[in-house]
Write a structure and sequence with these properties.
By secondary structure, this protein is mostly helical. It has three domains: 7-87 and 173-240, no CATH class; 92-171 and 245-316, Metalloproteases ("zincins"), catalytic domain (Zincin-like, 2-Layer Sandwich), CATH 3.30.2010; 327-365 and 373-393, no CATH class. The chain has helices at residues 7-43, 48-89, 100-113, 146-151, 154-170, 172-203, 215-240, 244-257, 260-270, 281-284, 305-316, 331-339, 353-357; strands at residues 92-93, 119-123, 130-133, 141-145. α3 (100-113) packs across α5 and α9 runs antiparallel to α11 (305-316).
Length: 393
């Protein structure tokens, strides 16, 4: 378990990614044939075999266009999926000057293993969560919430970033994006076919009354069954992605940071507090924890925090403190969140107020003549960045 970048897992993910792409085109072809069967059943009064043969001829004629459409869908998702995710979550990219504490933690992790530095983004949310996205090294990015930054200390944040870096290294991120593309494409085609069906059924009334046998009715029932199967399969594909990826990402984080206790405490703090409001289930499936559950754990995309912590205790020698109760968000915390998690005031998990008042920022040296007190002269503080005031270089 404690192996970062398991080559067998990486190779398996690459094979699964190719299989998923092939599966996308297969499901699209099934939908096209189902649509052709619906069209023939609504327009002709013939026996079932005749309708199925005619639908197959229609399918062969439409297959090239369906292939082009599916390829175009994949291309759009490949180049613009990050923009769509950012639009949903409100994530904004930050640089070293905007978030020196967070940026340096991630940079140190990348340097320690020679990993290309992904883009770093922050979304404004009280939820405690993080996720990685991207299809290639130029697109990879890690997004964290302001709630996670305010509630976790540096060691715990480092563990979370190590977890997401492992997802990138192991190819989990690319595979999840492909699975989301498949689900979106299938949902689009199913909705399109149903809309066309209802339009033809009720826009051109009287066609059903002219049928003299049950061939058309059976053809439509078969088509509906194919549509339902394709839609369910697109959903199952996402659930069928091995949940062992989360165990491996936890283990990879421990190997990166050499701190299993930080990974365990981070999971315990995130537990039950990761719900991202106004985001789709596809985004939640990419997060470090997905609190949205199905029947028991049958339809859960993530193993439970208890099972992940138990694995870390067993294989990495960590200590489980049990569920961690976080104090309610105070007024001071709200002011800090408004100013940004990298402002002059210390947040939860950081140094105390007395320590903060007598110590410089951990990632920079005070400029000449600059006081170490948080209430230093305005001239020693640069203009605020998008996430709050930060030290000038």
């Amino acid at each position: 378990m404690a192996a970062y970048g398991l080559y067998s897992h990486i190779q398996s993910n690459r094979r699964r990614s190719l299989i998923l792409l092939v599966g996308l085109f297969f499901l699209v072809y099934v939908l096209v044939y189902a649509g052709a069967l619906v069209a023939e059943g609504l327009s002709l009064d013939a026996d079932l075999n005749t309708l199925m043969q005619l639908a197959w001829i229609d399918f062969l004629q439409a297959a090239p266009y369906a292939t082009i459409g599916a390829a175009l869908w994949v291309a759009i998702a490949y180049f613009f999926h990050q923009s769509m995710i950012d639009a949903l979550t409100g994530g904004q990219e930050v640089k070293r000057g905007d978030a020196p504490r967070l940026y340096n933690i991630l940079e140190n992790l990348c340097i320690s293993r020679g990993i290309a530095m992904p883009k770093l983004k922050v979304m404004d949310s009280e939820a405690l969560n993080a996720f990685a996205t991207g299809m290639n090294p130029k697109q990879y990015s890690i997004t964290v919430t302001t709630g996670l930054l305010n509630r976790l200390d540096d060691a715990e944040i480092e563990s979370v970033l190590g977890h997401e870096l492992t997802h990138i290294r192991n190819g989990d991120v690319r595979m999840m994006v492909i699975a989301v593309i498949i689900a979106g494409a299938v949902a689009f085609f199913v909705e399109l076919i149903f809309r066309l069906w209802f339009y033809n059924s009720f826009g051109f009334g009287g066609s059903r009354s002219q049928r003299r046998d049950g061939g058309a009715g059976l053809a439509i029932l078969i088509a509906i069954a194919l549509l339902v199967v394709a839609y369910v399969l697109s959903f199952v594909i996402r659930l069928a992605l091995s949940r062992s990826r989360e165990f491996l990402a936890d283990a990879g984080s421990v190997e990166l940071t050499h701190n299993p206790n930080a990974m365990i405490s981070a999971l315990r703090k995130i537990e039950g507090r990761g719900e991202l409001q106004r985001t789709t289930s596809a985004v939640m499936e990419m997060c470090i924890d997905n609190p949205r559950e199905g029947f028991g754990e049958l339809f859960d995309t993530h193993p439970s925090v208890d099972s992940r912590v138990a694995a870390l205790v067993k294989f990495a020698g960590g200590h489980d403190p049990g569920p961690i109760a976080l104090p309610p968000q105070s007024d001071e915390d709200d002011e800090q969140a408004a100013a940004g998690p990298w402002g002059a005031e210390s947040g939860p998990g950081r140094a105390s107020d007395d320590e903060a008042s007598n110590a410089p920022e951990p990632w920079s040296e005070p400029s000449p003549g600059q006081s170490s007190q948080p209430s230093s002269a305005p001239s020693s503080v640069s203009a605020p960045g998008p996430w709050g005031p930060h030290r000038g270089s």
